[in-house]
Predict the structure of Aspartate-semialdehyde dehydrogenase.
Amino acid sequence: MDRYKVYILGATGLVGQRYVQLLARHPWFEIVGMAASEKSAGKRLAETGWVLEEPPPPEVAEMRLEKLEADKVPKVDFVFSALPSEVAAKVEPELAAKGYTILSNSSNMRMEPDVPLVIPEVNPEDLSLVEKQKAGRGWRGAVVKKPNCTTTILNLPLKPILDEWGIERVHVVTMQALSGAGYAGVPSVAIMDNIIPYIKGEEEKVVAETRKILKADFDVYVTTTRAPVLDGHLEVVYVDTKRDFGLEAVADSLERFRGLPQELKLPTAPEKPIEVKRQIDRPQPRLDRWAGKGMAVVVGRLRKLSPRKLAMVVLGHNTVRGAAGNSVLTAELMIANRV
Amino acid sequence: MDRYKVYILGATGLVGQRYVQLLARHPWFEIVGMAASEKSAGKRLAETGWVLEEPPPPEVAEMRLEKLEADKVPKVDFVFSALPSEVAAKVEPELAAKGYTILSNSSNMRMEPDVPLVIPEVNPEDLSLVEKQKAGRGWRGAVVKKPNCTTTILNLPLKPILDEWGIERVHVVTMQALSGAGYAGVPSVAIMDNIIPYIKGEEEKVVAETRKILKADFDVYVTTTRAPVLDGHLEVVYVDTKRDFGLEAVADSLERFRGLPQELKLPTAPEKPIEVKRQIDRPQPRLDRWAGKGMAVVVGRLRKLSPRKLAMVVLGHNTVRGAAGNSVLTAELMIANRV
Amino acid sequence: MDRYKVYILGATGLVGQRYVQLLARHPWFEIVGMAASEKSAGKRLAETGWVLEEPPPPEVAEMRLEKLEADKVPKVDFVFSALPSEVAAKVEPELAAKGYTILSNSSNMRMEPDVPLVIPEVNPEDLSLVEKQKAGRGWRGAVVKKPNCTTTILNLPLKPILDEWGIERVHVVTMQALSGAGYAGVPSVAIMDNIIPYIKGEEEKVVAETRKILKADFDVYVTTTRAPVLDGHLEVVYVDTKRDFGLEAVADSLERFRGLPQELKLPTAPEKPIEVKRQIDRPQPRLDRWAGKGMAVVVGRLRKLSPRKLAMVVLGHNTVRGAAGNSVLTAELMIANRV
Amino acid sequence: MDRYKVYILGATGLVGQRYVQLLARHPWFEIVGMAASEKSAGKRLAETGWVLEEPPPPEVAEMRLEKLEADKVPKVDFVFSALPSEVAAKVEPELAAKGYTILSNSSNMRMEPDVPLVIPEVNPEDLSLVEKQKAGRGWRGAVVKKPNCTTTILNLPLKPILDEWGIERVHVVTMQALSGAGYAGVPSVAIMDNIIPYIKGEEEKVVAETRKILKADFDVYVTTTRAPVLDGHLEVVYVDTKRDFGLEAVADSLERFRGLPQELKLPTAPEKPIEVKRQIDRPQPRLDRWAGKGMAVVVGRLRKLSPRKLAMVVLGHNTVRGAAGNSVLTAELMIANRV
């Protein structure tokens, strides 16, 4: 089949590089162009400070980055955006009005009621907001958002628990990877031999986005911290359920959890969106972040602390499942579902 | 005045080195000997792999380590023990029976009802168990324990909150320093670019010891993790109080908290046992672990999440306040109080 | 074709795990068994503390480890040994006498004149020592050694330079990865925020082995240090050549270098054994250690400091090219060459 | 005595903070003001992202930073400058012309023949250039430079070797700390689990400055790398001497080395400018960087590799001896010497 043409905005950041990595050899997509800030415009991708664990995909390593200009984006099927939120807030609506379908990583617009905020396994039905968005705004295109990385990793295991046992409240403490702050986000002098117990804006996002995604009104208490880890957000979660549960039943429910992407066998869908580890000292960021090619979350240390209190440790790859991978999977779902 | 004579058991480990550091220039104490494992016996202290941030105190750098033998410990006023728990379980009762007063860092005996488990600012009254212990066991000496490092750092700020607002339950997630596991405890290959979400035996200790120290029966839910930080345990704590609180009142209560060691102006007592940080991104292990010369805990990110739910981040130096320093302060209290 | 049967000694260490990873899906080899120390014997491989970046290969994850006993090793075509040298010194000769062909990672026997010490691209001719070894020792099998990891990574780029310009002397300073010391080799408390400027026995090995491999008598001055890096040894090398050189000619010679494994298209042979980086800040361990699937060394910062003084920075994956990968490639060469 | 009034330019950077730390309680100096970039101007020092291991000195914690304006610097005895070089290149000459004596950390002007580039123990005589500078430029004040941090740490041990045995050539490889690049200089994502084998402009500086300081024309071959270490530059040095040497004689010569600052008992002068370590695995950055309160360099691994080839490992605190401390000591020397 002819491949869908895609364009990447903000291709040189850490999430942008993941987009490139995931899309360059994707069976359904073809990268026809990439835009970046003025500093990188005109350079070949390979010259722009690629820092992922593998070199830039040869398919696009020689492609030249273009300067980001909304009226020069070529005609494509999907635009993947990893722009800084303040830039995205201007560029994305402009492109959507012109007819582009934008899968966006940026935090602007996430909480607007006509904007889908989608984890494909959890709330695929929210993609139907696209039609409402187009109609209400008079846009020919649309903006589809992925949640904050911490939210996505948290919501995947909460979904089957919510469905089977109900949730009263959740206490969360995260230890988040450096890549979540972008390439220059955390100076080495700030984080070596250290932990920083605050990430600007993060806690509010997790609370608000979780409610929007799960359509549930339980309380979410979150403390987010930055740890000296390259990739992989670890989250310690205490869940007060509405109904009593069995520990094995929870483990089983998490392991058997499947969503529409698995049903449709989408190319980027992990076989199991949630993997359950039985070893007592897992999940660990460095050992488990690549589960399901970075698209699965790994749950461990399942403990029943009282009749309706569950404890668990959750890990996910923040720039794959938590960012670029989630958007690519969403685009696949839109194609498969003809949204 | 003549100084009290002290002896150190297990002087070459990370906690043992802190004992040496704190006691070598202490105004009240004089180190008259140190014992270590067979491997180090006979060596000068300076030859035994000293790894603290400052060199061995010149006063004792040339002192030779003795082989640990219970019947060769000289007559001293206090024995400070940083032995592995399985060794301590044999040696400490033997020494206590003979008349030695042992301030011990090891986890054996901590939960026995006649054994004081003391944070000097929190439960100094438990030192009265010493007499009960001697009488009940027919010992001429006694064993006095310091709690697990994580427990000590947690209980200091819980104490004033408990006293003023009552506590219903506590959710805790820790990020603990490498030094807490001892010199060879965590291989570098295991922890670089990683977090390990499990520390053997730790969670059970925090729960049980907190109840013993605070004499309270609220629920304590704890998840302990190991992070790539040299010194300083960080603890994220959610406290459900019994009564509504004001955030400033809590901050004020923590800052004003003083205990018997402050009243008695003991040499190792920090002026403020609890420091409250107003900067939003504190406490941080590397920047705050030396508060009060390592004897203060630092509390930050105080938040009121609902009428009776408080969130805070607590930090303490695990081998000073959490270990050797707490025991030295306890010995000072015993002297001042003529226990 | 029928695959060659192989057995792994010391399968649970960091090099042992690399052997498993490389051999489990190898087109020519089939793992028929694995031995480990008493502690791991009887366990399934997946239960034994696997720490590589990818999970244990499913082909062997359920295979049970056997206790190392020289007289219970099954009949196989090759034995790959990652035993501690003091164990290897006893076991390997015993197995060789019985007829096993042993590809060994351990340092014992390396300098014996009838023992091949082989980098397949550099000195494949030394495999002919196998016949001499068998004859001289009356063994039915033989021991073939791979050099010290630092030696291998150094000698690959020295070889084409030696051949074209001659070498007078070499000054080397290394920054070596933690995995080179084995899983528990470097405590985290020892190396975080630190460098250790000494590795026991390493410098002597590099000097002696380089002379044996290159059959050259130039002076080698080496200082080896341990750095907080997981995988990948970095080596800064100053080469005094015998003849004047052009910088581009050297770069070209390194890039064009090919050996017998490339000629024979052996499965584990990297297309280019030496990759030359032009970016001024490369090679870097984290970004370049997987060049050629860990089998290529990467050279950068080529500088001409005086008419016959060349500077360069060399990087190689210490447990792949520097250890298990080099031995697997050697076995392939023995098969192809019918040694 | 009345204390000399000093002013600090660029007080919020890592070197600026060291200036503050060293000068706030200095027996001879009194900080009367501090200037910083527009971003920090008007803030109290304690509010500006202090990151050293100890909190800001209480003496100046509440002092407000001023905006850097050359015509608003108050009348002081010394100006200590930690400005970025491009800012310093404009501001320093302007201030010097007006009559200020500037002790500067920045790299501009270092190689100008009338500018002293001083390590107080090594080339105190070069302070006499101040008069020449004033006369030649018609300035009422003067600019005095400290060398690049790597140069200073290297030149201290080279000096006694040069004096006693002569030097033919030197090969150097450095592993430099993160603080040397400034607070935001090295992103954590760039350096974790990594080494970067290039530091812009550094190698050229070490070569040129060494020749100026030691007034010697031997060859200096340098490769500088960045390592994941907070403070403390490690340098592996091979010295080809002109005359044969005894290893103990070299150790002795280094240990006995004293300069004018020691003779004059200047307050910041370490008792021994060079400490020699006999333990085979020293110096190490984390354990040895505070030798002589950060003002001593530590030398270890002294080896004689051939009759006239010496190897050694050198360590120094890059922001103390390598930067602020060296300038403070220079100011003390100017006072004592009435320059």
User: Anything to note?
Assistant: Chain B touches chain C at residues 14, 51, 178-179, 183-193, 228, 230 (CB under 8 Å).
